[in-house]
Structures are given as structure tokens and as C-alpha cells.
TrEMBL record:
Alpha-L-fucosidase is responsible for hydrolyzing the alpha-1,6-linked fucose joined to the reducing-end N-acetylglucosamine of the carbohydrate moieties of glycoproteins. The lineage of its organism: Bacteria, Bacillati, Bacillota, Bacilli, Bacillales. This is alpha-L-fucosidase. It comes from Cohnella rhizosphaerae. The record marks C270 as: May be important for catalysis. The keyword Signal applies.
Length: 436
């Protein structure tokens, strides 16, 4: 089956996205105040009235998106996505269609506009997250809806015929975002479920409008799917609203994301730094910088991106622990970013000591495990012109040591100079050798 135009356009639109590989997700809203996660209303069945306390109180005096942008850039991230509206319906932008927005709080600021300006100023690409689900809007199904805080509260029975009013509102807000805020590089919708998918959102109409306003905007696949995947993005004839990339949530697909013929489909794993998207002070279950680095490498080795989340607190500060992790990831990226940006899956299978990424005729050997003896480059005998430690450019001899005579089809290298049998990895987080 031939590719349709949607498929071909996707190739064009996602060029920068596949190049950049590493982005920052930012989950921020009223839920930073209760600090029990962005699903707090749902989990605790909080009414709109009870949640109102956080709206009345919201006053992020330390909001300085330029500091966020510097942290993202220093970490080696190339794009960022902010929650313009999460499921609770609170808007971080000055929408004319609601008063449930940051400009009507003590903040008195268009937080989205300031985010966009700050991140663009650092040279990062910018995206907005917009929740399809809305627990605040009175025309969004509540009673009986799988994901609504009031799903089992009969007082919240709603007339299904008014759902179109919500869709007018939702389309109107997307129009505002794509009209009033300059060029947006990415739009991250969240999320479809059960029969709430595709044309239930009037998705064809929405996409037509979006492509008229901003033809190049990259869009996720969640007008048609949830975090578990699905939808026509996996086919050679995706629908107009299939999206430009798959969005596995809190998981890295074992073998990447491919279509029926095994051809790669753009994808981005969205992953939290601790165990929550929104700010939760008590959640100190942070991933180590080494794990983050290795998971980023893993994504790229499977042709994917990593969208790594931070959850700023109610005052507007990214948690100290998150900043510390990002700084260390950034130190590694500053020296080894060539093995990430513009790279993808290698032609060779995964080696047992780590992973490969590849860009053209350059192969990046990411060594995670200390070796006993020389490191085996299976399948590369006679094919390597030179090997360099990426972090400092130093030469690494590629040879076949005496004790590898039986494996003579393979090439080997060794971090030791002169050659020893064991040697500590130059960088325990992930040592990268550039092979040409
Ligand atoms: O915005 C982030 C999440 O809020 C949202 N998507 C990411 C990017 C998301 N939507 N659905 N899910 C995450 C998965 C749903 C998980 C749930 Fe639960 C399990 C909802 C209710 C039970 C997690 C655990 C949230 C509350 C308890």
C-alpha cells in the first residue's frame, strides 16, 4: 500500500522533532497547591466548589520562566511543552472564552505568553499541552464518565446534547492558542478513551483549523488514542487527526514504534522525574541522573524522543532535586550530545555492554558496563576507520587482542592505554565511543 499525503506531510513536519530528541514537559497548575498530583480532584472526588479555594489562593510569586528555560537548555533539551490547560480546566493563558484562567487569579499574568517568550529567547522550540478532558466545564460529561471526578455523583448528570457547546469552547481555545501566541512548534492533546476519540472531539474539523493557522505544527496522536497507543498513526494511510507522533506514557517501547512493515514511526516517551507529573513535595522517588541519561540513549537507540517532566511548585519553582538531576544530565549532554541529536537506531543489533546510536556513517557505542578484557564490536571487523572517546576526542585503538583469536570475525577496543584486562569506564554514567 502506498503512503497517503498525511504520511508524507508527517515526514516533513517531524524533521526538527526527530533531530532534537530531548524535551522538557512542564506540569503546572492549581494542583501544585494541594501538591497531591494533577489528578487530585479525580482521586479525591473534589467538587468544582471545593477546588475553588486553590484558584482564590493561586499566587506564583517566584514564576520566572527564564530560569526554567535556562535549566532546560543547560540540560541539553531542545524543546519544551507546558500545560496550557490540564484536566482540571484551569487555563494558564488569557482566554476570552472563560474566567477560569491565570489572569483572573492573584497571578494576574498570562503564564503561557511568558513561558513562550522565555523559551524562544533561549532558542528552544515551544509546545503546549491542552487537555481534551475538562472537569470544570459544565458541558463536559460528568456522571458516568470513566475519568470524571463526579462520575458517581448523580447530581452531575448532564444532558449529552450540550456536549457540542464544550467542543465549541475547546476548538475556540485551540484557535486562540494558535492565533494569539505566535508560531507554536508542537501541540500535545491529552487524551482519548473509550468512545471519546476522533470525531467525538470533531477532530477532522479541529485539525483542518489548526493546519490552516499553523501548517507546520507537530501534533501528538491523542485525538485518536491514549497513552497506551492505538489509532491510524500506525498505518500507511493515517487519518488527518492521527497525529505526527506516538506518545507512550511512562514506558519505553521494547522495540520502538513501527508500522506493519517494520518502518519507524516518530514517537516520544513522556516520563516523570519522580513518580508524579504535578508537584508532590513528599515524592522524593527521583530517577538518578545516570538512569535518565541511559533512558534517553535507549529512546534514541529505538528512534524515539524523551519528553522529561518537571512539576514546579505553587510559587513557580522547579524542585531543587529536579534541577540538580537536569544539571548533571546537562554536563553529560554537553560532552556527548553528538551521540543524541540527529541520531537514531543503528544498523547493528544491541550489544551486550550497552547500546548503539547512529548518525550517517558515525556509530556511537554507549558503554554502560565495565568490561573484562577488551570490548567486543561484533560485526565491525575491518569496517572501522577510527574510534574516539566522544567526551575528549582521544584515540582508542581498535584491535584484536591475543586472547580473542577465536573470535576473529570481530573487532575490539579497550579503554586502557596500554591495554589492560580491566579498566574503569571513563564516565560511569555512559561512556560514548564514536566509531567511523
Ligand atoms: O498529564 C499527564 C497525566 O495527568 C495524564 N497524561 C500525562 C501526560 C494521564 N492521563 N491518564 N493517565 C495519565 C493515566 C491514568 C492514570 C490513572 Fe490514576 C489511574 C487515573 C486514575 C487511576 C494516576 C493514578 C492518576 C491517578 C491515580
Amino acid at each position: 500500500m502506498a503512503h497517503n499525503q498525511e504520511w508524507l506531510d508527517r515526514q516533513e513536519r517531524t524533521r526538527w522533532f526527530l533531530q532534537d530528541r530531548f524535551g522538557m514537559f512542564i506540569h503546572w497548575g492549581l494542583y501544585a497547591i494541594p501538591a497531591r498530583g494533577e489528578w487530585v480532584r479525580n482521586v479525591e472526588r473534589t467538587t468544582v466548589e471545593d477546588y475553588q479555594a486553590y484558584f482564590d489562593e493561586f499566587d506564583p510569586v517566584d514564576y520566572d520562566p527564564r530560569a526554567w528555560a535556562r535549566a532546560a537548555k543547560q540540560a541539553g533539551m531542545k524543546y519544551a511543552v507546558l500545560t496550557a490547560k490540564h484536566h482540571d480546566g484551569f487555563c494558564l493563558f488569557d482566554s476570552k472564552l472563560t474566567d477560569y484562567k491565570s489572569t483572573k487569579t492573584k497571578a494576574g499574568r498570562d503564564l503561557v505568553a511568558e513561558f513562550l517568550e522565555a523559551f524562544r529567547a533561549e532558542g528552544l522550540k515551544v509546545g503546549l499541552y491542552y487537555s481534551l478532558i475538562d472537569w470544570h466545564h459544565e458541558d463536559y460529561p460528568a456522571y458516568g464518565d470513566a475519568h470524571h471526578p463526579m462520575r458517581d455523583n448523580e447530581a452531575y448528570k448532564r444532558d449529552p446534547s450540550t456536549f457540542d457547546r464544550y467542543l465549541d469552547y475547546m476548538h475556540g481555545q485551540v484557535r486562540e492558542l494558535l492565533t494569539n501566541y505566535g508560531k507554536l512548534d508542537l501541540m500535545w492533546f491529552d487524551f482519548s478513551y473509550d468512545e471519546m476519540q476522533g470525531e467525538k472531539w470533531r477532530a477532522s474539523e479541529l485539525i483542518r483549523m489548526m493546519r490552516t493557522l499553523q501548517p507546520h505544527i507537530v501534533i501528538d496522536n491523542r485525538l485518536e488514542a491514549g497513552g497506551e497507543g492505538g489509532g491510524s498513526i500506525y498505518t500507511k494511510e493515517p487519518l488527518a487527526y492521527a497525529g505526527d507522533f506516538a506518545s507512550p506514557e511512562q514506558i519505553i517501547p521494547p522495540t520502538g514504534v513501527t508500522d506493519a512493515d517494520g518502518q519507524p514511526i516518530p514517537w516520544e516517551a513522556c516520563v516523570t522525574l519522580n513518580n508524579n507529573w504535578g508537584y508532590v513535595a513528599s515524592d522524593t522517588n527521583y530517577k538518578t541522573p545516570t538512569l535518565v541519561i541511559r533512558k534517553l540513549i535507549e529512546c534514541v537507540s529505538k528512534n524515539g524522543n524523551l519528553l522529561l517532566n518537571v512539576g514546579p511548585d505553587a510559587r513557580g519553582r522547579i524542585p531543587r532535586q529536579s534541577l540538580d538531576i537536569l544539571a548533571e544530565v546537562g554536563d553529560w549532554m554537553a560532552l556527548n550530545g553528538d551521540s543524541i541529536y540527529g541520531c537514531g537506531q543503528a544498523e547493528l543489533p544491541k550489544p551486550d555492554w550497552g547500546r548503539y546510536t547512529q548518525k550517517g556513517n558515525k556509530l556511537y557505542a554507549h558503554v554502560f558496563e565495565e568490561s573484562v578484557g577488551a570490548i567486543n564490536l561484533a560485526g565491525l571487523a575491518g569496517r572501522i576507520k577510527r574510534a574516539r572517546l566522544l567526551a575528549d576526542g582521544s584515540e582508542l585503538p581498535v584491535s584484536r587482542p591475543w586472547n580473542a583469536a577465536l573470535f576473529e570475525a570481530d573487532a575490539f577496543f579497550n579503554f586502557a592505554r596500554p591495554e589492560h584486562y580491566t579498566y574503569p569506564l571513563p564516565d560511569a554514567r555512559g561512556t560514548v565511543v564514536e566509531l567511523e
